[in-house]
Amino acid sequence: EKAVNLKKDLAEMxxxxxxxxxxxxxxxxxxxxxxxxENAVEEMKRAKEDVLQKEVRVKILKDNxxxxxxxxxxxxxxxxxxxxxxxxxxxxxxxxxxxxxxxxEVWSCWIELLQYLVFFFAWLNNLEERVQxxxxxxxxxxxxxxxxxxxxxxxxxxxxxxxxxxxxxQFFFFGGILDDIISEKLEFFFFxxxxxxxxxxxxxxxxxxxxxxxxxxxxxLQVFFFFLVELDRQLTSYxxxxxxxFQMPQEAQ
Length: 253
Fold this sequence. Notes:
Low-confidence stretches: none
Helix content: over 70%
Structural class: mainly alpha
Oligomer: single chain
CATH class: Mainly Alpha
Mean pLDDT: 78
Coiled coil: 3-64
CATH architecture: Up-down Bundle
Keywords: Coiled coil
Radius of gyration: 40 Å
Protein name: UTRO protein
Number of domains: 1
Shape: rod-shaped
């Protein structure tokens, strides 16, 4: 009776593995968006956990069949042959599930990295345009201030985004996956980032200095203007009162 039950358990285990293979490995996956790909990664992770949890059941079957073989060699030998087939198929299923899960994870990281690079290359292009717009000489204080604010408002690239890009790149480097292609993309990105960052900082400093100079000049002109207004008032007063030049104060003369 025990041999019959063990044979039934082996058949059930084999049937479960066939269903798992059909559900997780033979399905034709098609991902039209990063969200669908991310969902597929999570599904494959659950599948991997589900398959690995069966390892306990497989071990129990193996121990029971070995025990039966010591007591009833004839029955145990037949079950041992079936067990070897189940063990081989189970190991193959585990390896294939792990492989597909890893493939989807790599694919997901690649898509995520490309999304980051596309977005931030566009950011770099816009930063370059902002910097080029500030190269022109501005004659008005408001124009310089607007140019500086425009540059400062855009010149913001959080450090955690650069860290995320580096971490995604390292995932591929350490795995030896597409390292040449990714290295080229990342090196070009960080080279452009450093180049434009230094250029933007230089333009920012130049605009701040220009703004400070124009404010100081504007202040001097305002003081001088008020002085002239007051002097004009005094001179007008002297002329109105018919002062002669020698009667006027020295500064008025």
